Amino acid sequence: MQYFTFCYNSLTYEQLFNYNKAMDNIDLETVNRVKPKMPDTTLLYELSDFFKLMGDSTRIQLLWALEENEMCVGELALLLNMTKSAVSHQLKTLRSAKLVKAQKRGKNVFYALSDHHVRTVLEMALEHVCE
Amino acid sequence: MQYFTFCYNSLTYEQLFNYNKAMDNIDLETVNRVKPKMPDTTLLYELSDFFKLMGDSTRIQLLWALEENEMCVGELALLLNMTKSAVSHQLKTLRSAKLVKAQKRGKNVFYALSDHHVRTVLEMALEHVCE
DNA sequence: TTGACAGTTGAATAGTTGTTCAACTATAAT
DNA sequence: ATTATAGTTGAACAACTATTCAACTGTCAA
User: Would the Cβ of B31 be found within 7 angstroms of any atom in strand D?
Assistant: First the structure.
């Protein structure tokens, strides 16, 4: 037996919106009440970018370690048992997000947390994860 | 001019560790002090998985919306201006992480937050993002 | 019982991302 | 000056992920 169902293939955003809106079982009032409370695009992407940044075990370890002490790339590589290259790449990511700052001293580059908000967020997440 | 530098090609973990450890300018004391304070593997992955989950703008919107009201898939699709299929896929992800719960009523499936910790974490992140 | 609607699902696709690799720069020591 | 060490970088690769697409199930109404 063959079914023919509606496909959204190549609908414009407006067409999709009208299609969604035209459904029977929808409480438009709820949707209209919630809509203005939704975060605007900029905030939304700032939020998800921040979480994306925290969503990598290497970067979490780096932040976690730097919370204890500033360290140079080689020390961090030893601590995490990774190549300096991999560590350096991730530190660059954290740095461009302004979560860590770098300072060159002699042959070494020392990294430190630049934002102690990070600790709070980590602790909140910990609380969540640990039930 | 040509340089010949060390390459880590196909080092075992142990070899990498020993190579890192053998560096001159490393404060082994710091590394040894911090090492026991690092999170264990399980916790580490639970943490990064949680942040990964929050690191998507669609899922943030879904959680944000459900914080206001439980809603069915069609309502959420209308609110976010997305196809029901895309919304359903993301709700499934959130559901298997136990962040939302589903309840079928008639033709509709209503989703609601199952963990109000989420709000706290979102608020923390908001605080961070908004400087 | 037929048709329409609500939602789900698996495969496919397009885009993103973390690590490796090799080559590089900069600094310190001999 | 030469050499070894510390770190950075861009390209390449592999793994992952969000959305689309098409086909499906379950429920209600006529």
Answer: no
